[in-house]
Amino acid sequence: MFEYFKYIFITVLSTFFIHIGIVVYDAIHHPVAVGQFVHPDIGLDIETLVKRNGYPFEKHHVTTEDGYILELHRIRHGLNKKNLTNRPPILIVHGILESSMAWLSAGVDKALPYYLAEQGYDVWLSNCRGNAYSRKHIKLNPDVDKKEFFDYSWHEIGVYDHPATIDYVIKKTGKSKIFYAGHSQGSVSFMVMMSERPEYNKKIKAMLALAPVVFVDHVKSPTFYIPALFQNAFEWIVEYFGLYELLPKSEIITQIANKLCNDESRLQKLCSTLLNINGGFNGDKFNSTLWPVVFSHIPAGSATKQYMHYTRNIFNDFRKFDYGEAKNLLVYGNKIPPLYDLSKVAAPVGIFYGNNDWLTPEKDVQKLIRSLPNVVMVHKVADENFAHFDFLVSLHAVDILYDKLVNLMQQYK
Ligand SMILES: *[C@@H]1O[C@H](CO)[C@@H](O)[C@H](O)[C@H]1NC(C)=O
Ligand SMILES: *[C@@H]1O[C@H](CO)[C@@H](O)[C@H](O)[C@H]1NC(C)=O
């Protein structure tokens, strides 16, 4: 009996992999030109996409103290041109492996930046060091000096990238304070910034923490806790093969996504599974037609060390990067890395989380709420299946989440 099932299992599994193999082979050997993809948004650069939707688009560059050149994208106003003269600026920060583009995949009537622009905000989308738009440095070449260029985690993003960006936005807009919204790692790096450079608290009107993965003790996502369980093997592989850059943006992924994730593909489910295995399964709250668009922007590249900073913190509190006892002694003067001091996050913080988010389970969110001194709002999204990536792409986010963000900001205008 067992034998019988074994053969059925092997047959099904090999059919599955052969099928994937054929699609991937086809995608690589018959690449599609921009404009010929199954969806017109696939592979578009952000400027073309935003302008095609009728919105104004600006590109800005900021250089950090340690030499990284970051690209910022700005949508200055909405189609309705409300409040043209007095628009509060908001800086929106993406998560690991994402970019400014991740916020726009959901389409013109569903995406957060367009929604905020229509509500009267001056929208600035950040790109953290090392992603597809910010893969530049005044001295280092990311392709040649990989090890040095990608030697950072979300610690450096919080300590260097955000302060430089906030100062730039303040200078350009002439305002003394701005709003900040961060998804996932974009919330974590905010906490790092305020704990390390608390003078930046006074430059923030209010911070919106969307799915903040600050404490990761109860993370359910296997892509996080499995490497955490096999930390040494994982780090050995990274060093041995020199994998300092994690999943950079690639034309091949766009081509494969075009074939694999479209509505006609029998393997479309695999695409949603690839994302949801990280952040939780939300049923079908996403417009499946847009999967190939999403995967033409994600992954957009990160440093592997960002990911390692998370996996080292699993079961281990919110600490600075753990180099191992010997190097910790040199760097921190202590065998164990110090904790970030969340009591220094004085800016008003609103926390927004989903019930089915595998990366921010309720227990971890509660611990964050207890640790922060100035939480002004806690909102659990009113959908029991709301998961990690729904903050970016849910069909209902405008109704059940984005209007709540605006409500909070109205109080701090
Ligand atoms: C835009 O102006 C309207 C009317 O004056 C006001 O109610 C709204 O709060 C303003 N929005 C922003 C973001 O300032
Ligand atoms: C899903 O996306 C497609 C393509 O952008 C669009 O035509 C369709 O109206 C969307 N469906 C829903 C339910 O929003």
UniProtKB/TrEMBL annotation:
Report if keyword Protein transport is assigned.
no
Q: Does the keyword Hydrolase apply?
A: yes
Report the domain of life of the source organism: Eukaryota
UniProt domain Partial AB-hydrolase lipase: residue ranges: 47-105
Membrane spanning stretches? 7-28
Which terms are listed as keywords in the entry? Hydrolase, Lipid degradation, Lipid metabolism, Membrane, Transmembrane, Transmembrane helix
Which family does the entry's similarity section mention?
Answer: Belongs to the AB hydrolase superfamily. Lipase family.
Q: Could you identify this protein by its name?
A: Lipase
Starting at the broadest rank, the lineage of the source organism is: Eukaryota, Metazoa, Ecdysozoa, Arthropoda, Hexapoda
**What gene codes for this chain?**
LOC108558215
